[in-house]
Specification:
It is a single chain. Helices cover 36% and strands 3% of the residues. It is mostly helical. The chain has one domain. A two-stranded antiparallel ribbon has the order 1-2. Helix 2 packs antiparallel against helix 5 (133-143). It is elongated and about 100 Å long.
């Protein structure tokens, strides 16, 4: 009776040679690639925020309860409510709304800006134009930041 060869027999005979060849160059594990840096980030002045930007946020009611940012997350922004102000928290939250590369395109500037002045959709339009003194104050804070 003739001997029948298993269909995987040739591959199984080659397996030890393939493993030996593949492991020949593996003396030690290779170093993983460097992690991505995450792109540019911006460092903004906390003192200037407290002096010039926080009053704008309060004056326009951005931190109000209810449907505003002090009443919980609205879109990508949440601020501390007027009854429990946390300036450091609000500073960090507003910093996240700043585009470190294209600063004039920052959500912090364009969302509260009137549509006719180049603003983006937002239910409350705090700034009528780019000449508004509050808009100028917020923009000045953003432009004074240092990109890292």
């Amino acid at each position: 009776m003739p001997r029948v060869q298993h269909p995987l027999a040739p591959a199984l005979r080659l397996a030890p040679a393939v493993l030996l060849a593949a492991s020949a160059g593996c003396v030690s594990p290779s170093q993983p690639p460097a992690a991505p840096t995450g792109g540019a980030r911006i460092e903004l002045s906390y003192a200037e925020y407290v002096a010039n930007v926080a009053p704008v946020v309060t004056r326009h009611g951005c931190d109000a309860d209810g449907d505003c940012h002090g009443g919980g997350p609205r879109g990508t922004l949440q601020l501390s409510p007027p009854t429990a102000k946390d300036a450091h928290y609000d500073f960090e939250q507003l910093t996240l709304q700043v585009n470190p590369v294209q600063r004039d395109s920052s959500a912090l500037l364009l969302r509260p800006l009137a549509d006719a002045a180049g603003g983006r959709p937002h239910p409350m339009k705090a700034f009528a134009s780019t000449a508004d003194t509050d808009f100028v104050a917020v923009r000045g804070w953003i432009l004074a930041g240092v990109t890292r």
